[in-house]
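Question (not urgent): is this output format expected?
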Amino acid sequence: MKVRNSLKSLKARDKNCKLVRRRGKVYIINKKNPRFKARQG
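Got this back:
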């Protein structure tokens, strides 16, 4: 999982990417292709 200061570019990498907020952190998750994972905050 990558820790990034901007998740906007990562969301555009794949159409299955979803942006999720959990406990004050922002995550990118992708069920179809699990390598596209990222966290912010």
